[in-house]
Amino acid sequence: MKTLQTEYDQPLASFNTLALPAVAKLFFDTSNEDQLVAALEHCSNIGEIPLILGGGSNIVLSGKPIPVCVRIASRGIRVLSKSADRVIVRVSAGVNWNDLVEHCLAAGYYGLENLALIPGSVGAAPVQNIGAYGVELNQFVERVHFRWIESGKAQNYSAAQCEFGYRDSVFKRQLNDKVVITAVDFSLRLHSEVNIEYAALRQELGDLLTPSPAQVRDAVVAIRRRKLPDPDSLPNAGSFFKNPVVSKKTMQRLCEHYSNVVYYPTSSSDEFKVAAGWLLDQAGWRGVQEDRVGVHREQALVLVNHNNAQGAELLDLAARIQSSILALFGIDLEIEPRIY
Ligand code: FAD
Ligand code: NAP
Q1: What digits encode the pLDDT tens for the residues 151-203?
Q2: Which ligand places an atom closest to the C-alpha of 262?
Q3: Distance, CA of 53 to CA of 65 (rounded, Å)
């Protein structure tokens, strides 16, 4: 085993896409499972639950010191099996998500193209069951491998055991702070079959009625580059709030007051998903810039750090947005990234 890389009082601003400052008293950079086990053993010995860090694109650092941070930087993509129409691929948790999408496209493994350009790591992807442009991760997950933080023991779950939901999974709930995902097995298609149901994607593809997976990837990348700020130039964590799922009664009330409300059906006929971005637009938040933080001009769901802000400033803005949405629409907006 290569020596476990250990740092003390490690600044974390460059390890999160919101570029928020905080210090990890102890920081382990792990590039394989032996190192991860050693880091977890250390955490257990000192009685600390570590912050497990991937690409830092779905966290908000409040500024409080972080006792221990374990970064997952393991690499590796390998084919486990192939049948006539599917391939099973095992991917280490530290692989960059978009690198995986590109690797699969180049190898002729299809399905992930709608999820192109989502920042972050493979290991974090099952945590919130990443989704975009009509596709969700769980459609392609076969098995998730993890280690228990307390004992270091390895285990794996089938997709059903992961209890995937809308931006949700067992890893966000019962297993939160209990396990570290080490690898994910994906079942991908060997034939080209694309999903272009999402209206914005269809529109971007224009006359292209039977696009290839690579053309779908190109269209997704083009929309995202136009609409979403690149964290390297304008720090952000993507959508700051989840789209609220409301009851039929609440939906009827909203429709009576606002004929243009943007909403979508869900798998339950009694529940509807309201576009949180629309709520923020109506409340006048889009493009608002305060001292060092603000709401993105192209997409109100994205809160941005304009100039070396502290986490507390961003969380204060988020709290005021939540209060205004509650007062105007009677809807509680839930913050999507995890706050530390
Ligand atoms: P981190 O931010 O490092 O961690 C997020 C959470 O997962 C933390 O609680 C962390 O402890 C936990 N975690 C990380 N790795 C592991 C592991 N190996 N085991 C256990 N727990 C772990 N999300 C979408 O769903 N769809 C999108 O389209 C999308 N677009 C985005 C666009 C932008 C510009 C940005 C900045 C973010 C976007 N996101 C999107 C959010 C984010 O990219 C995803 O949630 C991503 O999966 C987070 O990966 P990460 O490695 O950066 O996770
Ligand atoms: P958009 O296309 O402007 O649409 C606004 C919202 O409407 C989206 O959140 C989307 O929900 C929903 N929606 C649109 N068409 C839908 C349909 N046919 N059926 C069900 N729901 C529909 O959204 P956007 O902000 O530009 O984002 C585009 C995609 O990238 C979305 O899928 C979004 O989730 C994803 N994205 C996610 C993040 C993140 O951090 N979580 C950041 C950027 C982009 P869904 O969110 O459920 O798809």
Answers
A1: 999 999 999 999 999 999 999 999 999 999 999 999 999 999 999 999 999 99
A2: 2
A3: 15
At residue 3, the pLDDT reads 82
Asked whether 129 lines ligand 2 (CB < 6 A), one says no
Contacts of 268 (CB under 8 A, 6+ apart): none
Choice among 71, 167, 189, 217 that is catalytic: 167
pTM: 0.97
pLDDT given at position 255 = 97
Per-residue confidence (pLDDT) for residue 296, from 0 to 100 = 97
Ligand 2 mutation pick, 243, 261, 266, 271, max ligand atoms within 8 A of CB? 243
Question: Could you tell me if the CB of 298 is within 6 A of ligand 2?
Answer: no
Q: 120 C-alpha vs ligand 1 centroid, how far in Å?
A: 5
Beta bridge partners of 207: none
The burial class, CB within 10 Å (0-12 / 13-18 / 19+), for 269 is exposed
Domains along the chain with CATH numbers: 6-72 (3.30.43.10), 77-226 (3.30.465.10), 230-339 (3.90.78.10)
Percent of the chain with pLDDT over 70: 99
Average pLDDT of the residues of the chain: 97
Q: Tell me, what's the pLDDT at 1?
A: 62
How would DSSP label each residue in 269-332? TTEEEE-HHHHHHHTT-TT-B-SSEEE-SS-TTEEEE-SS--HHHHHHHHHHHHHHHHHHHS-P
Q: Is 167 a catalytic residue?
A: yes
Ligand 2 pocket member 275 (CB < 6 A)? yes
